[in-house]
């Protein structure tokens, strides 16, 4: 039986927010790192007259992370999800799960995972955590040629909470597809922040209102937003998320973490 909100098994998951999209997820004895971005605050030129600005340091350096069993890399083409220090870290990581396009550009122990395909990660003491790569759309419909390929991930397994890591997905249509296959989910780790840039007419990540709707679609037991802080191109932050979830009567499901904070979520 897979873990999930209808499962009677006992489970626990810890989420450590490090800033931006970077977090450590501890589940079933495994430590998974999302989107490593470890540079100090700086500006990144991304085209004529355009820059991305990192405004706050990541809470831990690569040397402070400790053991990591696998990296869940949603995409490599945007510096706020994989920066200079993050690329260097990937070269030493034991396993990186990501998109086919990223796998073709990155060195190291990179495994490309197609949408809806999975990789089973061995867990200490036996058994596995299944990591299924799910679709993501990093902007409005039709923006794929500009924003490129992006992945989300779903974690499942015996005694494992069904956990959705959205990546930079802005599409509620895709959230519905994921809910049809995996819902209801125990924990939704949603990249939010309502990111905007000049290249795309629309939001690149979930708005706070969209995050509420995604939580409802997924019937998520708990929602842990990431990627709404530490970068200047986000237009909404923690206060907007708190207000949106409170207005929808879902404040009890929301867990807001500042960089360096963590949460432990358990069944029951």
TrEMBL record:
Keyword tags: Hydrolase
Protein name per Swiss-Prot or TrEMBL: MBL fold metallo-hydrolase
SUPFAM superfamilies: Metallo-hydrolase/oxidoreductase (SSF56281)
Domain Metallo-beta-lactamase residues, every copy: 31-228
Keyword Hydrolase belongs to the record: yes
Pfam families: Lactamase_B_2
GO MF term list: hydrolase activity
InterPro entries: Metallo-B-lactamas (IPR001279), RibonucZ/Hydroxyglut_hydro (IPR036866), UPF0173_UPF0282_UlaG_hydrolase (IPR050114)
